[in-house]
Amino acid sequence: LDGAPGVAATLTRSCGAAIPSCGDASHPPSNGVQHRPDPRRAPIRPTKRLTYIAGIRAAMESINATLREPHSWLGRTEESIVFIAEIDHVDKINNRYSHHDGIYHRLVAPLPATAAAQTTRHTNELFEAVSQAFNDGIKCNLLLVRGAKNSVAKGGVRAAVDGDHWLVDQFIGSVAEGFEFNMLRVQ
After folding, report:
1. Cα–Cα distance between 8 and 62 in angstroms, integer?
2. Residue range 2-27: average pLDDT?
3. Mean pLDDT across the chain, nearest whole number?
4. Spatial distance between the Cα atoms of 10 and 8, rounded to a whole number of angstroms
5. What is the spatial distance between Cα 93 and Cα 177, in angstroms, rounded to a whole number?
6. Which of 100, 141, 147, 182 has its CA 20 to 30 A from that of 46?
């Protein structure tokens, strides 16, 4: 990412060594060569039961994580990043989550010049965290949230920490042009 904040990224970490014919249609051929998925990065099914509690801050505190400020899109522990996933978001196309399959995908729209200062801070913070998690291969946590501002459900915010680790395996875009990333539940 050339070390500059908000610089465009087009990266993927989901494939291993080149294999002439692995037969996996989900990995398009590159120069006529198909790639076999790296089994160390294949998503796993959940291994721990979810327990929802009231409030994002309380859920963060349950794993000794802190939010930089209220309404941030992520938190941090001493050794990891905690990404917040609104799993009942009204925009199902750009915010996809499958608990059973261990996959989370998020598309963040381009940041308009008229964006509020808080939105700009949160977008830049998320971009930098995704970039760091991807580049350094950090095993992260995913905080699952229901009932937030952009949620379908109403009646208060409830959150649960997925007890397994998650890796950012794909990351593309920039803050100015919009970016997206995929996360996989891993061992």
Report:
1. 35
2. 38
3. 77
4. 7
5. 18
6. 147
